[in-house]
Amino acid sequence: MPMPMLILRSVLFYIVYAVTLIVHASLCVLLGWLLPLKTRFPLFVQWNRFVVWWVGICCGVRYEIHGREKVPAHPFIVLSNHQSPWETVFLYYQFQPLCAVLKRELLRIPFFGWALALLAPIAIDRSKRRNARDSMLQQGQQRVTAGISILVFPEGTRGDPGQDRKYFTGGAEMAIATGARIVPVAHNAGHYWPAHKLVKTPGTIQVFIGEPIETAGRDPRELMEQVKQWINSRLASIPS
With DSSP H G I counted as helix, E B as strand and the rest as coil, what are the percentages for the chain, rounded to 5? Predict the structure, then answer.
């Protein structure tokens, strides 16, 4: 497809994306606090469903998911690679109820951050690393006890596809501390909705969900290395 058409479609996508976000987030902020926490999730993530549908219709970015039947019934820790804004939108409604470990600054973003705060995210202050770890583990236990699964991106920030990046052990430590199993997720969304770029490339994102991993008595570094190797092997299996 000619580049001018790709740019036009991407601009149209973001116009609708922004307008619907402001409207939906405003309604969530106005009405969400009246609802019990678990009731908020299926209502708030309707926008996420819309965005995944809209980027497919407008920009031709679709997806296939493999292993959905492996998701356990009890709360778990999702550990996913991080390439794109797409997975942050998609995973939130695939695993409900789900909260995310994220940097506190995101909650200050008008509309989006205000609504996100009502979904009980685990917001950490990265400038205070030791306190951030202790707070994350404490809040993680609270969420799992309340029946809420947790999303962690071990790489911390988004990176380009193909990069060999360090996986931090915080997500594994949380899983061990809470007794929750880890559900690894691998995807190649960065090829089609690249981070920090306007243009989206038509294609089909491949999403893989792995077998839940038991965490009792495990070493967090060994556990995270197992997750990283599984993610890398799944990504390597996707045809170029």
Answer: 50, 15, 30
Strand order in the sheet with 98-103: 61-66, 203-209, 181-187, 76-80, 149-152, 98-103, 122-124
In angstroms, the CA 61 to CA 80 distance is: 19
CB atoms within 10 A of CB 152: 24
Residue range of the domain that includes 110:
3-236
| Mean pLDDT across the chain | 94
- Look-up of token digits 């999702």: 78
Q: Which two structure tokens, joined as six digits, stand for 213?
A: 């991993």
Question: How far is Cα 88 from Cα 172, in angstroms, rounded to an integer?
Answer: 19
pLDDT for position 11? 98
Taking each helix axis from N to C end, the angle separating 3-31 and 37-44, rounded to the nearest 10 degrees, works out to 150
Q: How confident is the model at residue 45 (pLDDT cuts 50, 70, 90)?
A: very high
Instruction: State how many domains the chain has.
Output: 1
Q: Any idea what the CATH number is for the domain that residue 75 is in? A: 3.40.1130
Cα separation values, 127 from 105, 124, 132, Å: 11, 9, 8
Question: Is the separation of the CB atoms in 68 and 209 below 8 Å?
Answer: yes
